[in-house]
Amino acid sequence: MENQPKDHVGVLLGVGILFIAWGILGVLDQKNFTYSGYSTDGNNTIVQVEKGSPAEAAGLKKGDVIMSTGGIAVANTKAQSMQPRPKIGESKEYVITRNGEEMKLDLTYAALPDKQNTLNILGFLIGVIFIVLGVFMHYRRKTGLSWTFAIFMLCFGFVFFEGPYIAPGIANQLIRSISISIVLFSFGALANYMLNYPPKSRYNLKLLYLPAALAALLFWILEFTLPESTESLNMLVRYFVGAVIIFYFGLSLVTLISKFLNSNAEERKASGLDLMLIGAVIGLLPILIYFTISTFSPGTILPGNDYVFLTFIAIPIFFSLALMHRGEKELAV
């Protein structure tokens, strides 16, 4: 492949620094994050209440359907979007239905527990590793493949950054929409790298980013029109976005496994496909299973679901080793 212009390294470095700075601001704001201790199925039905959490103390139970919080119906997306985030120690009235009976409960928000703080920090560090290795590998190699690799690594690293709190308003909507677009683009960039990794696939890549673009467009429309949150709309969004993510992760895994099976032992070692496969199986397969189950069975709580994202660390490590190994083989030849 032809070398990319050297100034592209500067562009990557600048974007990487910008992304990491955004993540640092989020880490610094973490002390203000609140914790409620319950999870829903995306349609306001509670599927999990953590032991010792504010939700348990308030009396919330699995199967409760949340009707309103703070006096605002959960279906009223516009009014909900204009509410500032709750403060630690603040209480809100929750109106729920339980077995057809309406109930009012008061939930007092707490600070994030130590476990969640630690997981957030680990997520930030994983994002930094993605970005640093992406920029470094392109700096070392400056090829079309390393450029594709760097784009994927930068965008994927951004996925792990929470970012600071932005008050409700147009700035919040813009930042949320841009952030979601980058996240969706990162999934397409992952598949693009897998398809371009030697031996390059023969598939037409022109429409590869179309699903991500459509999902991003959907989010932009929802973010700025703020339609009423209905069960059918929530289900449509969950299925569509879930299908997009499953498509990209599945395509990436299938593509890599196909290349691995169609190569002999010597070719696998020379191209780094063995290292790529290790990284993909450890880093992608658990997430693919998780997304598939959470998309089609949102009420299912998988054991260890809080920690599944940690497997992503295998991707930057093994993918970088594969690209570096491939470069050494090319130099040796």
TrEMBL record:
Pfam families: PDZ_6
Database matches in PROSITE patterns: PDZ
Membrane-spanning parts: 9-28, 119-137, 144-161, 173-195, 207-227, 239-261, 273-295, 307-324
InterPro entries assigned: PDZ, PDZ_6, PDZ_sf
UniProt keyword terms in alphabetical order: Membrane, Transmembrane, Transmembrane helix
Residue ranges annotated for the PDZ domain, each copy included: 37-76
Name of the protein: PDZ domain-containing protein
Lineage summary: Bacteria, Pseudomonadati, Bacteroidota, Flavobacteriia, Flavobacteriales
